[in-house]
Amino acid sequence: MPAQLAVIIHICSTKVPYASAGKEAIAEIPEIEEEMKLALRDAARKLRLYLSRKERELELLNKYVSLAKYVDEIAVSLSAITNVERSKIAASLYKLIENKLGTTAEEIAKYVASIAGNKE
């Protein structure tokens, strides 16, 4: 079930058309209703863009973690086969992952730190 959401819209004007003398509700004027609907759509669009960007970042992080998990094991095996130093192979594999994903380990670490900071 989706989370509930309450939307509060503030209308600022010197001539707000109230529905009654008690000023508890705004009169149903099509122009005001249309502007409120457009403002709500604009806010929803911005929220959707923000959430999709965060989702892509999280997906990229998961891909990096999945690939980096095997780097040491692959480097050891390749080192045994090729007689090349394990650290050089591991560095090359990390660089290959970064090139493939289009991001660096430092950027991913910064993103993870920002996520951890937001949860606290």
UniProtKB/TrEMBL annotation:
Domain DNA topoisomerase VI subunit B transducer: 4-59
Lineage: Archaea, Thermoproteota, Thermoprotei, Thermoproteales, Thermoproteaceae
Keywords on record: Isomerase
Gene: top6B
GO biological process: DNA topological change
Protein name according to UniProt: Type II DNA topoisomerase VI, subunit B
Source taxon at top rank: Archaea
Annotated source species: Thermoproteus tenax (strain ATCC 35583 / DSM 2078 / JCM 9277 / NBRC 100435 / Kra 1)
EC number, UniProt record: 5.99.1.3
Family matches, as Pfam families: Topo-VIb_trans (PF09239)
InterPro entries registered for this protein in UniProt: Ribosomal_Su5_D2-typ_SF (IPR020568), Ribsml_uS5_D2-typ_fold_subgr (IPR014721), TopoVI_B_transducer (IPR015320)
MF terms (GO), sorted A to Z: DNA binding; DNA topoisomerase type II (double strand cut, ATP-hydrolyzing) activity
